[in-house]
Amino acid sequence: MACCNDTGCKSDTPLNSTRWRQALWIALVVNGCFFLTEVIAGVAAGSTALQADALDFFGDTANYAISLGVAGMALAWRARASVIKGSTMIVFALWVLGNTAWHAVYGGLPRAEVMGLVGLAALVANGGVALMLYRFRRGDANMRSVWICSRNDALGNAAVMLAAFGVFGTGTNWPDIIVAGVMGSLGLWGGLQIVVQARGELRAENQHLHAVSGE
To answer: Mind listing the pLDDT tens digit for each residue in 11-54?
Structure first.
């Protein structure tokens, strides 16, 4: 995945195009629906991996809503929104890691069949969203953050399914805990990537404004 330097990113896709906004709306609806689904299923199944994935869905729903709000705005505003989105991902990831540690000590055996079924449904939905957003992955920090969110969601859904197989095969909750820890780490890394790129774009924009005002 290509990263941008301090001169910012260039995108061949219009920042407020109809296709971009339609893709965001679809991603928002899918993530909102699966947030509710995985919250209920995660609690019912006693799965920390499902709960971690549900929290990620909630964060992404908010992120897509922010992206819709700033689409077509100046680079500085889009970069500021990306800093907020990346920071939100970092906070959620830290919560996931803390919750995982708690379940490692006090958690019981999750229901593998519920984890597997919900994980499969979420994977199919998010796989479609990720493919839809793939064309926007090389845009600015705002577009790239949306792509990172969708990619992480699809990987997280696949990981939940692996955890379900592991719980079923071993009869312990450790596969669930390990997968939740990996998902939290992935979310933390993705959030850091977004914040670093967005801050670089803000620096580049400030340098450009200073240069213009000094002329």
So the answer is: 444 455 777 778 888 888 988 998 899 889 988 888 888 888 88
Q: How many CA atoms lie within 13 A of 50 on its CB side?
A: 30
What is the maximal distance between C-alpha atoms in the chain?
A: 70
Angle at 183 between CA 199 and CA 141, to 5 degrees: 20
pTM above 0.90, yes or no: no
Structural domains of the chain, with CATH: 18-214 (1.20.1510)
Percent of the chain with pLDDT over 70: 81
In the block, tokens 């939290």 appear at 184
Q: What is the DSSP letter of 7?
A: T
The H or E element containing residue 148 is helix 141-170
Whole-angstrom distance, CA of residue 41 vs CA of residue 113: 11
